[in-house]
Amino acid sequence: MAVIHPGVFFVMKRFPERRGEIVKCFNSSKSFQVICEDYKQCSEALQFWNEMDFDASIQRKAEYEELLHSLENEIFQYVNNSCLKHEGG
């Protein structure tokens, strides 16, 4: 049984309907692997700040939510465009 890298696991959890494409991109692209790791780290940071209860945590939550949304868009675009271009070659 293959071990799923934690970064790609977080991405597949968010986009379960694209699991096969995500795995293909992860296995074929170092850049996509980095995006997945960034997504994992951002998700964990957001979870941390969601558990904090002081004034600064509100701003941090908003910052990480924005970053997470940006990474989701990047993942979605990568899976739809970049990864598909590499399949034929």
Structure description:
The chain has a domain at 30-83. Helices cover 83% and strands 0% of the residues. It has helices at 6-14, 19-28, 30-51, 55-87. The chain is elongated, with a radius of gyration of 14 Å. The mean pLDDT is 88.
Outline of this structure?
The chain is 83% helix and 0% strand. It is mostly helical.
How many β-strand stretches? 0
Structure classification: mainly alpha
Rg measurement, Å: 14 Å
- Taking the alpha carbons of the first and last residues, their distance comes to 27 Å
* CA-based shape: elongated
What keyword list fits this structure?
mainly alpha, 89 residues, elongated
Task: Reconstruct the topology from this structure.
Blueprint lengths: L5 H9 L4 H10 L1 H22 L3 H33 L2
